[in-house]
UniProtKB/TrEMBL annotation:
Classification lineage: Bacteria, Pseudomonadati, Pseudomonadota, Gammaproteobacteria, Lysobacterales
Organism of derivation: Luteibacter rhizovicinus
Protein name, per record: LysR family hca operon transcriptional activator
Keyword Chloroplast: no
InterPro entries referenced in this protein's UniProt entry, alphabetically: LysR_HTH_N (IPR000847), LysR_subst-bd (IPR005119), WH-like_DNA-bd_sf (IPR036388), WH_DNA-bd_sf (IPR036390)
Keyword Transcription regulation: yes
One Pfam short name: LysR_substrate
GO cellular component, one term: protein-DNA complex
Length: 299
């Protein structure tokens, strides 16, 4: 068993799709990825995935293996980072994390600030689920992250934007002809809900539906934008999702705004109060400028 087997398996488990993992995370072919996963299952001796037309889900054995695989990869990454730091003890480093998909909006301007002040700094960038970013901040693996204000972690949060929720649907859905979507329009449609890795977003959605008098039981519950879009397209379902996901949509999925006053969810920068990095202090001093640059209308 090699590290690539673990990385491949984790990518498939997180995206819920062999195709999405192959094309967007691993940059390999789907048949090749399928063979690698089958080789891994043969080595472990049990089935790790349940394959269906809608994607893949983890078996009970797969769920256990997934937790250990992520831990093993995390430890390997930490070992590599420690070795590099030991080889260059005087070099300045800064670790940035992003809620998956948000790096497309915020990373270029964040890099501009860091490079302008410290041209020789070593910057590492990662994307992950919001709770996992919070965990990495607490453990000191990240200096700063763009994430949700996770209530279970003692971190400092500073909001950078308020994102409206939008409705995702198949591009040929009957509601696609409408300019806006009412919450009542969601009734009777397959609904894709948020899972345990998106508890802040799930709470915002649940509160909005309750205030709107709409009672919906999700047919599927997922954690990441790629899987949401995959299920919207494959099940012809609807989903409520922050507007930044529009940057990631394939041709098979479109979005429509909600009518009236749409609910919003905060994106914040988070960091540990105990982190005394002078680079973190410098970055935070430029935060208002960063927000202004990102918010500026594009030509």
């Amino acid at each position: 068993m090699e590290l690539r087997h673990l990385r491949y398996f984790v990518a498939v488990a997180e995206t819920g799709s062999l195709t999405v993992a192959a094309e967007r995370r691993l940059h390999t072919s789907q048949p090749s990825l399928s063979r690698q996963i089958k080789d891994l299952e043969d080595q472990v001796g049990v089935d790790l995935l349940i394959r269906s037309a809608r994607g893949v889900t983890l078996t009970e054995a797969g769920k256990v293996f997934f937790d250990h695989a992520r831990l093993a990869l995390s430890q390997v990454d930490a070992a590599i980072d420690a070795a590099r730091r030991a080889a260059q003890p005087g070099k300045q480093r800064f670790a940035l994390g992003f809620l998956t998909g948000q790096e497309m909006t915020w990373l270029p301007e964040a890099m501009h600030i860091l490079r302008a002040e410290l041209p020789n700094i070593e910057i590492t960038v990662s994307s992950d689920y919001s709770p996992d970013l919070a965990e990495a901040l607490v453990r000191g693996k990240l200096d700063l992250a763009f994430l949700r204000a996770e209530p279970d972690y003692e971190l400092v949060y500073r909001p950078v934007t308020h994102e409206p929720l939008i409705v995702l649907m198949p591009s040929d859905h009957r509601l696609a002809s409408r300019d806006t979507i009412r919450p009542q329009d969601l009734l009777g449609e397959p609904f894709i809900g948020m899972g345990n890795k998106a508890t802040v977003l799930r709470a915002v959605i649940d509160d909005y539906l309750e205030r709107s008098g709409v009672d919906i039981t999700p047919e599927q519950v997922v954690d990441n934008p790629a899987m949401v879009m995959s299920l919207v397209a494959s099940t012809r379902g609807l989903a409520l999702i922050p507007a930044y996901v529009q940057n990631l949509m394939p041709w098979s999925v479109i979005s429509r705004p909600l009518s009236g006053q749409a609910p919003t969810i905060d994106l914040a920068v988070g960091y540990s109060k105990s982190n005394k990095s002078p680079i973190l202090k410098m970055f935070l001093s430029h935060l208002d400028d960063l927000i202004a640059r990102v918010s500026k209308p594009r030509p």
